[in-house]
Amino acid sequence: xxxxxxxxxxxxxAALHLIAVLACARTTFGDPGEPMIWPAFGIAAMWLTxxxxxxxxxxxxxxxxxxxxxxxxxTGAGPVVAVLEGVSAMLGAVAFLVAVTRRxxxxxxxxDGRRPLSSLPDLWGLLxxxxxxxxxxxxxxxxxxxxxxxxxxxxxxxxxxxLLRDTVAVLVFGTAARLFGSLLEADRSRIPExxxxxxxxxxxxxxxxSSQAELPIGFVLIxxxxxxxxxxxxxxxxxxxxxxxxxxxxWTVGGDGPYAVVADVELxxxxxxxxxxxxACVGLSLALSRDERDTLIRRLRDSxxxxxxxxxxxxxxxxxxxxxxxxxxxxxRLVLRNPAAGRLLGTVPAVTGGVALASDxxxxxxxxxxxxxxxxxxxxxxxxxxxxxxxVLVRNSAVPEGRIVRFNAARLSLGDxxxxxxxVFHDVTADRRHxxxxxxxAGRVAHDLLNPLTTIEGWAEVxxxxxxxxxPAERVExxxxxxxxxxxxxxxxxxxxxxxxxxxxxxxxxxxLLVGDIINSRLDQAESTGxxxxxxxxxxxxxxxxxxVLLRQLLENLIDNSLRTMAPGVAPYLAIxxxxxxxxxxxxxxxxxxxxxPPGTRHEVFTNxxxxxGSTTSNGLELAICKRIVExxxxxxxxxxxxxxxxxxxxxxxPAGRSAYARALAPAR
Length: 669
Description:
Blueprint: H1 7-24, H2 39-50, H3 57-74, H4 79-103, H5 120-148, H6 156-178, H7 191-211, H8 222-231, H9 234-253, H10 265-320, E1 324-328, E2 334-337, H11 339-345, E3 363-364, H12 377-382, E4 390-394, E5 403-412, E6 420-427, H13 429-466, H14 473-501, E7 507-509, H15 511-529, E8 535-538, E9 544-546, H16 548-564, E10 573-581, E11 585-592, H17 622-632, E12 637-641, E13 648-655, H18 660-665
Parallel strand pairs: 8-10
Antiparallel strand pairs: 1-2, 1-6, 3-4, 4-5, 5-6, 7-9, 10-11, 11-13, 12-13
């Protein structure tokens, strides 16, 4: 039958524990009559901890007590004392296991290959757990001694010596047993130096504890522990502490060394145990601190190398992009740009780090009108606006023919400092020219088709008159309806072409008069058709600087779109007003109580040939025409939900009137 993996550690710990009990049971000097070198306690604690997750934990607990009692019996102790020592060993091991489970669980799970003791917090946790175990083992041992010997009194110094002994046993000998396997993995390049440290330490300990035993110069041995802790791996440092703590204890038990001159046996025992514990703590503290530092440095180097590799990879990717990429700081100056950005902007020598990306680089509106710095997308993002992708005409000495570049600007947060802006540039010249050529072709086709359509409508009217009263006249009506739909569509194409290509003739327009005229025409239309008349609420309307023909078309399309999207049976309501906007613009708002626009399509409604679901009276170009008219005047347009209820709010900006006539029309605020 195959033995479980837990058997070899159990056998190893059992052998070490039994050897330690037999070898050290006689290392005593007078009262308190307890062994001064007692590695068995530390080995027992680690033995039970290593077996905590296996089925051997209860047999191991019994074996600890049995081996301890048997060792004392073999070395001449009475059976009661032997049983008392066995019970104390079991209680100490169990207490250590409980403390480790709560305070230092990594010591239990280190069997998976990880270091069980690798940082200063681990050392302090181990010291705490060792103290708990020593206290748990000392209480029954001291209580039993007092009960067995009626003439014996409790001694604080003797109790302290026992506590220190068991604590050092766990800290030094238990840790040495736990890290024994790590010795094989230690850096072999340090073997010569390690042998030298052990040789020098052996000579120094002989000199202090044997040759010059009367002199209290034990402190000169501390530098040797420091040397070992700084230069040797942690498992070797633990081995060094275990070997020379044993040497110091053996010399003291034999009556040699600076501590042997102390007449009080209990005080002597406490001092030598305290010395051993201090050396162990100093050595382990320095070694673990060095290990933590080396680990952090290694991680830092790995992280630095990883960051360098990622930066190199990212730089390669960014530089190989066909789209331009630039990052600007909070002042609008370039921090980073890739070669494609320089090519697209046509200003490779000028556009470098530390230079502001402004309109003096040759940025214009797509129609060629000037573009101020405040209208640039990245400047607006820096001002806190939510900016949609924007087409910009780039024309400078490097690109004399002009290039249409789409700016995509977004905010980039970098920790707690001021945010930056990342801008992606995409050359859309070919796409826009293709689109413009297509729309121009569509406009020409629409114009050419109007003549035959007029002929069809004329002959359809003649047929309707001739077939009046006959059944075929219904088919003629279908022809007339189809022709009417075709005329609406062709007129829309012509209107879009005019809005796109027509020459702007801006002048000061009295918005109040224009809106009033459109409202009257819609009221007359509703009365003539018998439909419910819409209710208009008109607020303040300042004059604007715009092409009057295109402005009328813009307002009529937006108002008609609101009326067309009303729910059946709902009385139409529209509110029209304006308010000042940055950069010398006016924002005009048209609010309605229509069905509204789904949130996911509020940008799509301004694209060509977009129709509301179920619409049969729209050619899909009305809002695209509105967007084109607004953009040609240097403004923007957006559709949002009505903040005061159901419906939609159409908001667009136009230049405010600048003439003396406009100032005279503008009411006092």
